[in-house]
């Protein structure tokens, strides 16, 4: 088995690395990587429905989508990601335990009273420290997971606080769980680097014919291309979300409450309903009409509205708060 330790903290590069070796290699691979603060959603999720959009925007948290299913996860520089990429002769018999038990055993060897849960998670003290997901491509499988070592759990909680009643869709929904950090349960404190080394050594100790080989220049260029052409794109991150209806309300300067609904397909606003009586000169109706065929993204919407003289000249129109009501 080949082991690769990524030297990148870019979530798009690391997700592209997984896909590249899944689709372009016949080797069994164990990959370790750490991402800068980001939220990574499952392939079939509605990204906006899984995040606290305002908090994520204000804290410059990167948003990404992976090729495997499952729920949304928050990652930062104190979360360790692992990936097993293997050939499998019988994919029908493939299950999470084949790849999660080596991680479980590594934690047990460190003196951690960890256990495997029925939702493909690893637990300590009945709290989640690792979530796992899987993707199959031809006769190969990618099984990957997170390890909360010393992550900012307050940031995690705030970033993933959602209002699911606003989004009506058929996407896969995340199952929220109580989480904890591995570092809180270690008898002998470890740094993140030491924890990574211990995990690496345990996996390799039990692997036949192990060897560590860095990513070569050709592989790196192919990974960068995959990242740019897929994982960094609007079409993949947002546009891959299933179509949905977004429902909310906002309060006008007059005190009147407006309820509305946006119809969104492939991340783009295709229509709306404003569920109040209004005249043709209504500024809110006008603003919503401007947004038809725009991306359902805060920066895109605010750019459209701030360049419109009718909107900017209305002293009673609070542009920023109106835009945040659309999420």
Briefly summarize what is shown.
With 327 residues, the chain is α+β, with helices and mostly antiparallel strands. The protein is built from eleven helices and 15 strands.
Description of the structure:
The protein contains eleven helices and 15 strands. The protein is of the alpha+beta class. The chain has an eight-stranded mixed β-sheet with strand order 7-8-9-10-6-2-1-12, sandwiched between helices. A four-stranded antiparallel β-sheet has the order 11-13-14-15, covered by helices on one side. Strands 4-3-5 form a three-stranded mixed β-sheet, covered by helices on one side.
Unreliable segments of 5+ consecutive residues: none
Give a quick account of the main beta sheet: strands, pairing sense, barrel closure: 8 strands, mixed
Let me know the number of strands.
15
- Lateral arrangement of strands in the main beta sheet: 7-8-9-10-6-2-1-12
Structural class category: alpha+beta
SSE string, helix = H, strand = E? EHEEHEEEHEEEEHEHEHHEEEHHHH
The portion of residues assigned to helices is 25-40%
Topology:
Elements: E1 2-5, H1 11-24, E2 29-33, E3 38-41, H2 53-58, E4 62-65, E5 73-75, E6 79-87, H3 97-109, E7 114-116, E8 121-124, E9 127-137, E10 140-148, H4 153-159, E11 167-168, H5 192-205, E12 211-212, H6 217-231, H7 234-237, E13 244-251, E14 257-265, E15 268-274, H8 283-290, H9 298-306, H10 309-312, H11 319-324
Parallel strand pairs: 1-2, 1-12, 3-4
Antiparallel strand pairs: 2-6, 3-5, 6-10, 7-8, 8-9, 9-10, 11-13, 13-14, 14-15
Helix pairs in contact: 1-6, 3-5
């Amino acid at each position: 088995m080949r082991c690769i330790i990524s030297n990148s903290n870019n979530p798009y590069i690391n997700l592209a690395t997984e896909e590249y070796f899944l689709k372009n290699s016949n080797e069994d691979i164990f990959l370790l990587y750490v991402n800068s603060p980001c939220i990574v959603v499952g392939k079939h999720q509605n990204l906006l429905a899984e995040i606290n959009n305002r908090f994520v925007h204000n804290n410059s948290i990167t948003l990404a989508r992976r090729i495997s299913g499952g729920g949304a996860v928050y990652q930062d520089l104190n979360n360790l990601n692992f990936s097993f990429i293997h050939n499998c002769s019988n994919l029908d018999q493939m299950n999470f335990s084949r790849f999660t038990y080596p991680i479980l055993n590594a934690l047990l060897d460190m003196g951690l009273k960890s256990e495997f849960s029925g939702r493909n998670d690893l637990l300590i003290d009945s709290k989640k420290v690792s979530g796992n997901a899987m993707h199959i491509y031809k006769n190969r499988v990618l099984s990957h997971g997170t390890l909360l070592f010393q992550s900012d759990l307050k940031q995690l909680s705030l970033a993933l606080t959602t209002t699911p009643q606003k989004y009506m869709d058929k996407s896969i929904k995340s199952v929220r769980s109580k989480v904890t950090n591995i570092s809180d349960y270690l008898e002998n404190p470890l740094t993140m680097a030491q924890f990574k080394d211990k995990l690496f050594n345990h996996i390799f100790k039990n692997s036949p014919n192990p060897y560590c080989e860095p990513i070569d220049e050709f592989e790196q260029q192919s990974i960068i291309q995959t990242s740019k052409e897929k994982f960094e794109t609007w079409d993949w991150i947002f546009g891959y979300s299933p179509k949905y209806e977004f429902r909310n309300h906002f309060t006008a300067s007059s005190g009147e409450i407006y309820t509305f609904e946006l119809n969104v397909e492939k991340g783009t606003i295709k229509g709306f309903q404003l569920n109040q009586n209004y005249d043709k000169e209504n500024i809110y109706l006008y603003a919503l009409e401007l947004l038809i065929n725009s991306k359902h993204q805060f920066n895109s919407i605010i750019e459209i509205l701030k360049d419109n003289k009718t909107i900017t000249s209305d002293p009673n129109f609070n542009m920023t708060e109106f835009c945040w009501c659309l999420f």
